[in-house]
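Z., the sequence and structure:
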Amino acid sequence: MTITYLDLAPAQRDGLDGLPFDGNHLVSGPPGSGKSVLVAQRAVMLALTGTPVVVLTYSNLLRQSLKASVHALGPADRSIRVMTAHRWLTEWYGTTPPGNGGGWYDWEALWNRAAEAPPTTGPVLVVDEGQDLPPEFYLLCRMLKARMTVFADECQRLTDTNSTLDEISRNLGRHTRHELDGNHRNTDQIADFAAQFHIGKATPALPGRQGPVPRLHRFHERGAADLLVLLAQSQPRKTIGVIAATKHMQFSLLGSIQNRAPRIKPQLYTSQSRGNLYRNLDLARPGIVIVHRASAKGLSFDTVVIPDTHQDAATDPTSAGLRMSYYVMATRARHELHLGYEGDTEPPLLAQVGRGVLQRG
């Protein structure tokens, strides 16, 4: 069997080759360790054995990103399907399952359906950002005798219905556990800034690649749009991810950029769009992509701009949820990171970051 590796460091390649084809596996690692790249490669390797594979995500935007990677590598017969977990559960159930009022489904109903179903060969699943799926999901997959490879990092939880690594381990049943280390995405300066908000047991080691120190801007009205136009014009071949706190900020920036520089053609994603507009993006195209914080997980951009940190000024800076959010957002950046705020005072969370780690102005 010939395996084509995609942007893998030697340690990543060795870890991938060390995963048995059979059984359940939990692979954990910090941001930049290459989990999403390994998800695509793992799915391809399993599919090359003749087994249909389903890649699952919580986020629809991450699904789009992974689908492009998988299909660039994958078998021509498209034996790998990339889906959100919600979509896969609906397809398996046969119709939209009853809801539980929390954004997920009535797990009792799904478990009952699984218990009543005739014995079949379990599905082969590869899960990215597995910490964002609830513990009940893994119990269901165990009932379905699914063969699973789950990539996760509980320091990047996205929702309140997440699973810890221990919960995933417990609910998978018999499995092997593997750990990734290293940061193959960020520069030393970006990783150092992100480390100020890390809440795990051990701060990941800093990478050796160098770049500019992250910068904090005090914006006047519409100042964020001015910065984005400047970045897009000076970096025409780069991807620029804008991670906004509110839908209002997303559309405000979109309109301002379109008015100032129509040729830039920024893209915007919102999960609340009812049609294809603002739902399907070309993430391989250089330029500006405006996303909500809730959709940023698993993505990466050459440059990241977090334009509205003043939205967090009233939040306790010691809040684990807030710190985790900044940890995730900052680590989306491969080379350059900008943060911005409006008003006279820096948000408390950022005011405590030293000037050697975060430049001002």
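The mean pLDDT is 90. The first helix runs from residue 10 to 17.

Let me know what you think.
H.
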